[in-house]
Amino acid sequence: MTDTPLIEIRDVSHTFHTESGPLPVLDNLSLSVADGGFCAVVGPSGCGKSTLTRLVAGLMKPDTGSVWLHGEQVRSPRATVGMAFQNPVLLEWRSILRNVLLPLEIVPTKLTRKQQEDRARHLLTLVGLDGFEDKKPSELSGGMRQRASLCRALIHQPEVLILDEPFGALDAFTREDLWQTMHQVKAQEPFTSLLITHDLREAIFLADQVVVLSGRPATSQYVMNVPSTGPRDLEALYTPDAADRLAILRHQIQVAQGRKPARREAAQ
Known about the structure:
Rossmann fold
């Protein structure tokens, strides 16, 4: 990871126009994610976190402000962005291997057909799905389908991986297993990640930066840097340091919800 920002969100504001009137969701929001960094975004429900991912992916344009990737302003969807969502949305009539390969039918690639399949099989092995290439999605568990969805998001080697609550619908054990898988994948695949989550433990386990958004219309309320101490295991979530970080983030969420006044936080 370098200190040079790959993702830059500069003074972004956005309002949805509904039947009942304008609905401001983002207000003068600025944040940056270093090249190779992993940023988790947390905040109250409905504060605009998913809107933020769509702006970064180029699926929407902000009313004011700008979004930049690698020094280029985002004005339209970009092939250098991969996305994984809470619902894997795999196609039942295609095998897991063919589902993973799907983006390469849309995004231009210089890989030969064999190189494409080799990469798909490599990713499936990396996430523990070797031997399941020819299965249909209905033959896999929820956690396995989410692993396949992650492979699909990475198949075209994106610069940016957007994760919009990809583990939110899974049981606790499966979710924790996938957190560890994400660390293994990140060690081998060079990407910068933006994670949307409601799980504060997930945020500090996966990310090196946690951004707390305020209530709607959201702005950047608080930024926590999580020092890298090498590969993380689940035991790291039960240390005094982790407890302190979680307490700070819980307080910040309560502030964003209007339930508690702001206070001076301990040094990060």
